[in-house]
Write a structure and sequence with these properties.
- It is a single chain.
- This protein has 147 residues and is α/β, with parallel strands linked by helices.
- It has 2 domains: 30 residues; 114 residues, OB fold (Dihydrolipoamide Acetyltransferase, E2P) (Beta Barrel).
- It has 4 helices and 6 strands.
- It has a 5-stranded mixed barrel with strand order 2-3-4-6-5.
- A hairpin with a 5-residue loop joins strand 2 and strand 3.
- Helix 2 packs across helix 3.
- The protein starts with a helix and ends with a strand.
Length: 147
Amino acid sequence: MSGKKRILLAVLLITVAAAIYVYREYNRTNVNIATEKSAFTVSAPELIIAFSGDNSVASKKYVGKIISVTGMVKNVYRDDRGYYTLSLGDTSSVSSVRCSVDSMYTNRAASIKAGMNVVVKGNCTGYNEDELLGLDVIVNRCVIEEH
């Protein structure tokens, strides 16, 4: 086989592999968190303490995993597009667990009020820390399990 044919074959194989990858990514769907099992069940104050202490250890343990968080709702925020974010934690602290509710479950989130105790399951994606605003642990695509 000549050099030109080998190069053409390699380009053809790379093109086919790229096309398969693009097709899979385009048609990929998100995992339904409501049907997934939680890797951990933790209270909001415990989660905040874990990230306040050694955040690299907490990140290795929680980030990228489905977790269930129990706690009192400090605040319910609805943005201009109708998406809900719940802040869980102790009202005496500025730190909280920020739970962005999955858009498929906004009806359940609409019934949540500050002061209620809830169990929320979602994907822990990390934390934000600020000297003035405290620490926020971020949990996305949340499903409200109990309220």
